[in-house]
């Protein structure tokens, strides 16, 4: 699998420089790309993380954390060279440099996964998390 293919979509929305930070028309121009529906591996991109800017993908089910699925999450993390950091919600971070590559959120009406777009195995990780955490297949 590959990095996420939505990098250019994200980059087109970012503030290009402080000189246009108050330019409403420039903002409106950047947001036009949001009219283009984005998906990765069949999962819809529903937005970007507010502080981190990572693309957020909706999973087709609601998630409630349990002893079983948090253990499964840690197993998936290990397969990808990561550990799980439990904050408000779990984050997968690389052992080699503590870089966050994913976060799984459960406090909305459906589960969501935030992914670092430049992570080489991001799409593979998204599919693996979606399959592993699915309460129907558990």
Low-confidence stretches: none
Q: Please indicate the percent range of residues in DSSP E strands (runs of 2 or more).
A: 15-25%
Give helix % range: 25-40%
> What's the shape?
globular
Q: Report the C-alpha radius of gyration, rounded.
A: 16 Å
**Helix-strand category:** alpha+beta
Largest β-sheet summary: 7 strands, antiparallel
SS elements, strand count:
7
Q: Quote the average pLDDT.
A: 89
**N to C succession of SSEs:** HHEEEHEEEEH
Quickly count the helices. Answer: 4
Sheet with the most strands: spatial strand order: 1-2-3-7-6-5-4
Distance between the termini: 24 Å
Number of domains: 1
SSE blueprint and pairings:
Elements (H helix, E strand, L loop, with lengths): L6 H5 L12 H8 L7 E2 L2 E6 L6 E4 L8 H13 L2 E5 L3 E5 L5 E6 L6 E4 L6 H12 L5
Antiparallel strand pairs: 1-2, 2-3, 3-7, 4-5, 5-6, 6-7
Helix pairs in contact: 3-4
Plain-language structure description:
This is DegT/DnrJ/EryC1/StrS aminotransferase family protein. By secondary structure, the chain is an alpha+beta fold. It has helices spanning 7-11, 24-31, 67-79, 122-133; strands at residues 39-40, 43-48, 55-58, 82-86, 90-94, 100-105, 112-115. It has one domain (7-133). The chain has four helices and seven strands; from the N terminus they run ααβββαββββα. A seven-stranded antiparallel sheet has the order 1-2-3-7-6-5-4, with helices on one face. A hairpin with a 5-residue loop joins β5 (90-94) and β6. The longest helix is centred in the middle third of the chain and has 13 residues, at 67-79. The mean pLDDT is 89.
